[in-house]
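re: the backbone from monday

yeah here it is again, tokenized this time
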């Protein structure tokens, strides 16, 4: 038998939610949704930042690999010859080519002072401006080099509008076409380096510092300063002397290259004028002047400490590159 009508109404009222219960449930639901949205937002922000960092340093990694790959192919084509063809007294190592490491922005080296070393050498890069005649010669010899330059990016040619200045540190690559090779003009000096900037182009932005250290193998030189006391190297230095140094017309067995890259957000924050920002240039003040293994490790750790406390996002790339054509013992 069916229940009386008043009992059915009472049962329905017992099963329904009150207004207070609905409001409490809605409030709880809103809180949960807010927490979920906050978690999604934080996750999205972390993912975006991680993606931005990866993208920012992909270009630096590609440029570093390009530089180290070409550096490993450096050549001098050294040979033995009389010291004087008319009145010979001894044999000397000779070469028409040149391997050179020095401070960027000083002496013959282009670049911005305070950004570390510049490297110049010859390698079979196969670059020519006369593709119709020499385009198939992939091992053509080129003078090439790498250095860091601070400044505005090159603008687009007319009729494109002039863009706002965008000052950055840039890793520059110089590749002199084979038909313009000037290193043969003289077997002494560094005059051939002066024309290389005309053949330079940026290969990565936000590379702020580079250390190039010519070294022997650790087993042969545990202190790390046998070839250079200040990271410099000049294969032509005293190369005509009757008592040649070990480096005369010889390639170093190894070059350890270390570069420091910033992400775009950090670079945009500090690179706002036409002069190198002190927030970056001050990071390496007093560092990397003496190339001993102990001093290098100390200087690198000091640099990392300064970078960590500067609020800049950075990445350090380093590699010890064997120079394949080195004959040095």
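seq for it, each position gets an aa:
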């Amino acid at each position: 038998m069916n229940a009386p009508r008043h009992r059915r109404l009472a049962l329905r009222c017992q099963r329904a939610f009150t207004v207070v219960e609905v409001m409490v449930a809605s409030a709880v639901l809103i809180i949960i949704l807010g927490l979920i949205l906050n978690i999604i937002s934080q996750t999205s922000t972390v993912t975006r930042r991680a993606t931005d960092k990866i993208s920012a340093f992909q270009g630096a990694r590609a440029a570093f690999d390009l530089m180290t790959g070409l550096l490993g192919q450096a050549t001098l084509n050294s040979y033995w010859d009389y010291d004087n063809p008319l009145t010979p007294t001894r044999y000397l190592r000779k070469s028409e080519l040149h391997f050179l490491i020095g401070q960027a922005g000083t002496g013959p080296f282009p670049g911005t002072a305070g950004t570390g070393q510049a490297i110049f050498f010859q390698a079979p890069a196969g670059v020519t401006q006369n593709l119709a005649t020499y385009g198939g010669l992939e091992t053509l010899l080129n003078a090439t080099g790498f250095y860091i330059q601070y400044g505005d990016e090159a603008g687009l040619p007319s009729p494109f509008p002039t863009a706002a200045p965008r000052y950055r540190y840039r890793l520059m690559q110089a590749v002199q076409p084979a038909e313009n090779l000037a290193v043969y003009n003289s077997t002494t000096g560094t005059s051939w380096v002066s024309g290389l900037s005309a053949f330079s182009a940026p290969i990565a932005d936000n590379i702020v510092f580079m250390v190039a250290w010519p070294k022997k193998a650790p087993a042969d030189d545990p202190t790390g300063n046998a070839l250079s006391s200040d990271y410099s190297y000049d294969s032509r230095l005293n190369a005509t002397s009757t008592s040649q140094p070990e480096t005369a017309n010889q390639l170093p067995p190894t070059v350890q290259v270390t570069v420091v890259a910033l992400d775009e957000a950090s670079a945009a924050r500090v690179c706002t004028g036409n002069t190198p920002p002190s927030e970056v240039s001050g990071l390496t003040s007093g560092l990397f002047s003496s190339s001993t293994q102990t001093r290098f490790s100390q200087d690198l750790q000091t640099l990392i400490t300064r970078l960590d406390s500067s609020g800049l996002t950075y990445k350090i790339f380093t590699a010890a590159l064997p120079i394949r054509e080195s004959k040095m013992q």
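The mean pLDDT is 89. The two ends are 110 Å apart (CA to CA).
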